[in-house]
């Protein structure tokens, strides 16, 4: 009997939202009707979201992709020789040759979309666990030094050097230490955490185990965003498999070393993306920001030394340990080493995830990779770094995506979310949205954030209504200065970025709504 042909169909949330489950069912049903043996492997998405559901078929010449596929397309695909990679209007060729995917530098996301995310053997066959095995043969200080040498910085937004944080926890006294993964991905236009968990969860598990070995922690927690039900199920299933395979538990890979891992789900508060509010929530209290010092690295979860890193930071660690720190540091520019998974969203023709080395410009990303706006109209503004990121005009599109260069140009990379707006956008409305978002999501602990954001909405409303506009703008800028310098955390402290950038780069939009005086 002939071996079944292998078909790959994504099962991450993005693909499911556009009918991937129905496509998988149609493929299985059509093969059964024709008496053709097939094996359907459910994967994560490769990130070319405008092509989803994108299916692939294993052929002697490699995996051939087709997309976007609807259930009604399936009979015609079989007639065209789908299982041999035959010609069809939906045929895309080899997935790695699609320009969108070919031109990326996939280090952290190398396996996403190519493996069964819940098969440890498939993970290991594609390089998984090599980093953990190497770490088990190293002293904790050697592991930390590898992270320092790689130049890896926190991918959650603050961009703090991961190795320095790890060294602080390693050197901190204490018999119990923790590793906490911040997977509370709440920024607008971001989805890399979700895609990684749904497409390669063992990568995160491996990274957290390595972090535990590095700092002397035996317990880890993943704090996952509540709005990610598919990621929740996938990650818990992967953790259970990791325990069964000896990747987690009292005897990690037969080494006699312990690392336990538990997944916790947040309740949907944006403020819990801030590390100390996250720790408060993990401890069973309301998510409110803690005053620092002490730093979580010295007194974090339950008052113990704690590594708190973003999911992408921890998922990048296995590559660094497996390939060596220099292999990672060879990518990037300046102090921004390695790659960043960038997420293209909003009014963009080819939206999705793009992993690129630091140094690519916004213009290259928006036009060469993203294909310009979905509407076909000129791109007027781009917000990078989530709802607290600045709105950047076309004159800033040649900024290289590098932490220092971007900051010098008035921007913030944050978690790599990029939301695109064409020339129909009203930037006064966007500024108001930023202030209102802060008012809704504030934990309420500090006055500049709690009260300042509410007053900010009122001032913007008066400004666009034309009520003494010069006075209102002066008041708004003064309020932003107070929030910037007086807020306890980045929520209130960075809300001025989108507001002031809208004022500075798009002043005409604030006068657009003002009533005009008609001469007698």
Automatic annotation (TrEMBL):
<dbReference type="InterPro" id="IPR001949">
    <property type="entry name" value="NADH-UbQ_OxRdtase_51kDa_CS"/>
</dbReference>
<dbReference type="Pfam" id="PF10589">
    <property type="entry name" value="NADH_4Fe-4S"/>
</dbReference>
<dbReference type="InterPro" id="IPR037207">
    <property type="entry name" value="Nuop51_4Fe4S-bd_sf"/>
</dbReference>
<dbReference type="InterPro" id="IPR036249">
    <property type="entry name" value="Thioredoxin-like_sf"/>
</dbReference>
<comment type="similarity">
    <text>Belongs to the complex I 51 kDa subunit family.</text>
</comment>
<keyword id="KW-0411">Iron-sulfur</keyword>
<feature type="domain" description="NADH-ubiquinone oxidoreductase 51kDa subunit iron-sulphur binding">
    <location>
        <begin position="428"/>
        <end position="473"/>
    </location>
</feature>
<keyword id="KW-0004">4Fe-4S</keyword>
<keyword id="KW-0408">Iron</keyword>
<keyword id="KW-0479">Metal-binding</keyword>
<dbReference type="InterPro" id="IPR037225">
    <property type="entry name" value="Nuo51_FMN-bd_sf"/>
</dbReference>
<dbReference type="InterPro" id="IPR019575">
    <property type="entry name" value="Nuop51_4Fe4S-bd"/>
</dbReference>
<protein>
    <recommendedName>
        <fullName>NADH-quinone oxidoreductase subunit F</fullName>
    </recommendedName>
</protein>
<dbReference type="InterPro" id="IPR011538">
    <property type="entry name" value="Nuo51_FMN-bd"/>
</dbReference>
<dbReference type="Pfam" id="PF01512">
    <property type="entry name" value="Complex1_51K"/>
</dbReference>
């Amino acid at each position: 009997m002939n071996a079944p042909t292998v078909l790959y169909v994504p099962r991450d949330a993005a693909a499911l939202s556009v009918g991937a489950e129905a496509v998988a069912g149609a493929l299985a049903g059509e093969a059964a009707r024709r008496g053709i043996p097939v094996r359907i492997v459910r994967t994560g998405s490769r990130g070319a979201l405008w092509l989803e559901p994108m299916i692939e078929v294993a052929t002697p010449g490699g995996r051939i992709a087709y997309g976007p596929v609807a259930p009604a397309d399936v009979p015609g695909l079989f007639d065209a020789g789908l299982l041999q990679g035959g010609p069809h209007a939906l045929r895309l060729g080899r997935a790695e040759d699609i320009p969108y995917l070919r031109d990326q530098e996939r280090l952290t996301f190398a396996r996403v979309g190519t493996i069964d995310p819940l098969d440890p053997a498939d993970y290991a066959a594609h390089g998984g666990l090599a980093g953990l095995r190497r770490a088990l043969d190293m002293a904790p200080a050697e592991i930390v030094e590898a992270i320092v040498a790689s130049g890896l910085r926190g991918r959650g937004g603050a961009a703090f050097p991961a190795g320095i944080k790890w060294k602080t926890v390693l050197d901190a006294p204490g018999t119990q230490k923790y590793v906490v993964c911040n997977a509370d991905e709440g920024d607008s236009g971001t989805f890399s955490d979700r895609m990684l968990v749904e497409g390669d969860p063992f990568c995160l598990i491996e990274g957290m185990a390595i972090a535990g070995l590095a700092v002397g922690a035996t317990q880890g927690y993943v704090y996952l965003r509540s709005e990610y039900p598919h990621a929740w199920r996938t990650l818990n299933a992967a953790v259970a498999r990791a325990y069964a395979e000896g990747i987690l538990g009292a005897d990690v890979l037969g080494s006699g070393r312990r690392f336990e891992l538990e997944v916790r789900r947040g309740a949907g508060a944006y403020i819990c993306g801030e590390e100390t509010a996250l720790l408060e929530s993990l401890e069973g209290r309301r998510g409110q920001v803690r005053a620092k010092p002490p730093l979580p690295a010295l007194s974090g979860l339950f008052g113990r030394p704690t590594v708190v890193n973003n999911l992408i930071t921890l998922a990048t660690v296995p590559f660094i340990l497996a390939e060596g720190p220099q292999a990672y540091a060879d990518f990037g520019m300046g102090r921004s080493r390695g790659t960043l998974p960038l997420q293209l969203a909003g009014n963009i023709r080819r939206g999705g995830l793009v992993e690129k080395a630091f140094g690519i410009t916004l213009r290259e990303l928006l036009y060469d990779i993203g294909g310009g706006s979905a509407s076909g109209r000129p791109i007027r503004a781009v917000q990078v770094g989530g709802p607290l990121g600045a709105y950047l005009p076309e004159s800033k599109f040649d900024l290289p995506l590098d932490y220092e260069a971007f900051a010098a140009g008035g921007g913030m990379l944050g978690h790599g979310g990029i939301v695109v707006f064409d020339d129909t956008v009203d930037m006064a409305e966007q500024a108001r949205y930023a202030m209102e978002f802060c008012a809704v999501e504030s934990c309420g602990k500090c006055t500049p954030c709690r009260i300042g954001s509410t007053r900010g909405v009122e001032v913007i409303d008066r400004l666009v209504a034309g009520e003494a506009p010069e006075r209102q703008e002066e008041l708004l800028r003064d309020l932003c200065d107070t929030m910037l310098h007086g807020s306890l955390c980045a929520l209130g402290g960075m809300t001025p970025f989108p507001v002031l950038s809208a004022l500075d780069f798009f002043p005409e939009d604030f006068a657009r709504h003002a009533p005009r005086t008609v001469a007698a």
